[in-house]
UniProtKB/TrEMBL annotation:
Membrane-spanning parts: 70-92
Annotated function: Catalyzes the formation of phosphatidylethanolamine (PtdEtn) from phosphatidylserine (PtdSer). Plays a central role in phospholipid metabolism and in the interorganelle trafficking of phosphatidylserine. May be involved in lipid droplet biogenesis at the endoplasmic reticulum membrane.
Pathway: Phospholipid metabolism; phosphatidylethanolamine biosynthesis; phosphatidylethanolamine from CDP-diacylglycerol: step 2/2; Lipid metabolism
Organism: Chironomus riparius
Enzyme Commission number: 4.1.1.65
Membrane-side (Mitochondrial intermembrane) residue stretches: 120-444
PANTHER family reported in the protein's UniProt record: PHOSPHATIDYLSERINE DECARBOXYLASE, PHOSPHATIDYLSERINE DECARBOXYLASE PROENZYME, MITOCHONDRIAL
Subunit structure: Heterodimer of a large membrane-associated beta subunit and a small pyruvoyl-containing alpha subunit.
Protein's name according to its UniProt entry: Phosphatidylserine decarboxylase proenzyme, mitochondrial
Cofactor requirement: pyruvate
Length: 444
């Protein structure tokens, strides 16, 4: 109340002339935690310590400064921890639990299950393949949409100025041999699709006189005779089902026979053989007829578009039965013969020149993960369709796989080795008069 009896001019003058030197040590101790300027307090503390004539005030001031320093640092650390743990998006918030802890936990569980699965495969003497749940997750990825996008991009016309740079980088990255191309000028190819499906010089490929030759350039993943069981090896130790791969038996008069005996044309003195050839992105993307034969009908299986590289083929059992494929089934002079083009990731389309109705990589909406789909379209080919050995059959828009399954006399022998690189027209095998003759019966 005494303030009301003091003249306002005198009160204002005293407030204006107030200086920090009039503060006591006790006021300084109380005032410090509420100070807004560390610099002004530091300057005041320095002047105070210089003007003080007792060591007690210096010790008190030093304790005050040390207490403030550690207190401010502690509160700063606690504030950061509070923001990191409890604030929006923090590790202990609901958002952090859902977006951070949950994915981390799922990764740990997946790694543990993968480790246990590998241990189980080692105990049973089986190859290390991906468990079913990992295959399901892989099939759930939008690989078909990605492949359709890549196919659309590959068909876009590239400006002539950038063609040598883009196609040159691709050739360097994947080891494309441009000297074999009919047209080596990179400016001639209007799009990536034109460059992928380029033709090569006839003198660069020689068709061997043997009964079966390579239909494409690529690497042999597996080859050999088909045993009494219907499971074939896609790579060493990893199998796929022949019945699922080619579909149900198309002959009504062999219902009671086994699948292998049911599809054979000649019942005595013959066996089934198979050969898998993988086309890398840098290989020649067109494929030819491996022998002289007559395709009777085609089955188009609507499957997934997983990668068919050797690394993936070692992890995913039944990979060729999961993927989209076009199987051409017919006969040659020694019995049953089939030629199957398997689709893969980023394969924009599989084009077969004798079958204009074949349309692969169709839009299926947002439906993904339908790896067990067994639906297929069957189309009968014209009676006048006949393929000669070495004749051009079709082309891939990216690397993929060719699977041959055919019937031949038991004297047939493959002339291949494990992981051998083959070219179009190169011999895959032929008949031997002596069973002890050179040649490999199966991949060892």
């Amino acid at each position: 109340m005494a303030v009301y009896f003091i003249p306002k001019t005198k009160l204002i003058s005293r407030a204006t002339n107030f200086r920090p030197k009039q503060w006591t040590s006790r006021w300084t101790t109380v005032k410090r935690p509420f100070s807004q300027s560390h610099q002004s307090y530091h300057q005041h503390s320095t002047n105070k310590s210089q003007n003080s004539q007792t060591g007690t005030n210096k010790g008190k001031l030093h304790k005050i400064k040390r207490k403030w320093r550690w207190g401010a640092t502690g509160w700063t650390i606690l504030s950061i921890l509070d923001w990191w743990l409890l604030a929006a998006g923090g590790w202990l918030s609901w958002q952090g639990v859902i977006l951070r802890w949950t994915p981390l936990g799922l990764c740990i569980v997946a790694a543990a299950q993968w480790h246990l699965h590998n241990k189980d495969c080692e105990r049973k003497g089986l190859p290390r393949t991906a468990p079913a749940w990992q295959t399901n997750v892989y099939c759930s990825l939008p690989l078909r949409m990605m492949s359709r996008g890549w196919g659309w991009l590959a068909e876009r016309q590239v400006p002539e100025t950038f063609r040598p740079t883009i196609f040159g980088l691709y050739s360097t990255a994947f080891g494309v041999n441009l000297e074999e191309a009919v047209i080596s000028d990179l400016k001639h190819f209007k799009s990536l699709s034109d460059f992928f499906t380029r033709s090569i010089k006839e003198e660069c490929r020689t068709i061997a006189p043997d009964c079966i030759v390579s239909p494409c350039d690529g690497r042999v993943l597996h080859f050999g005779p088909v045993s009494g069981q219907t499971h074939l090896e896609q790579v060493k130790g990893v199998t796929y089902s022949l019945e699922t791969f080619l579909g149900p038996n198309w002959k009504d008069n062999n219902i009671n026979a086994s699948y292998i005996e049911g599809i054979k044309e000649k019942k005595e003195g013959t066996s089934l053989y198979h050969c898998i050839i993988y086309l890398a992105p840098g290989d020649y993307h067109r494929f030819h007829s491996p022998t002289s034969w007559k395709p009777n009908f085609r089955r188009h299986f609507h499957g997934e578009l997983l990668s068919v590289s050797p690394k993936v083929a070692k992890l995913v059992p039944g990979l060729f039965c999961i993927n989209e494929r076009a199987a051409y089934i017919g006969e040659w002079e020694h019995g049953f013969f089939s030629f199957t083009a398997v689709g893969a990731t980023n394969v924009g389309s599989v084009q077969v020149f004798i079958d204009e109705d074949l349309k692969t990589n169709k839009w299926r909406g947002l439906k993904v993960g339908n790896m067990r789909e067994t639906e297929y379209d069957e189309a009968k080919l014209r009676n006048d369709v006949f393929l000669n050995k070495g004749e051009l059959v079709g082309q891939f828009n990216m690397g993929s796989t060719i699977v041959l399954v055919f019937e031949a006399p038991k004297s047939f022998r493959f002339s291949l080795s494990s992981n051998q690189v083959v070219k179009v027209g190169q011999s895959l095998g032929c008949f031997c008069d002596n069973d002890n003759d050179s040649g490999m019966e199966s991949e060892e």
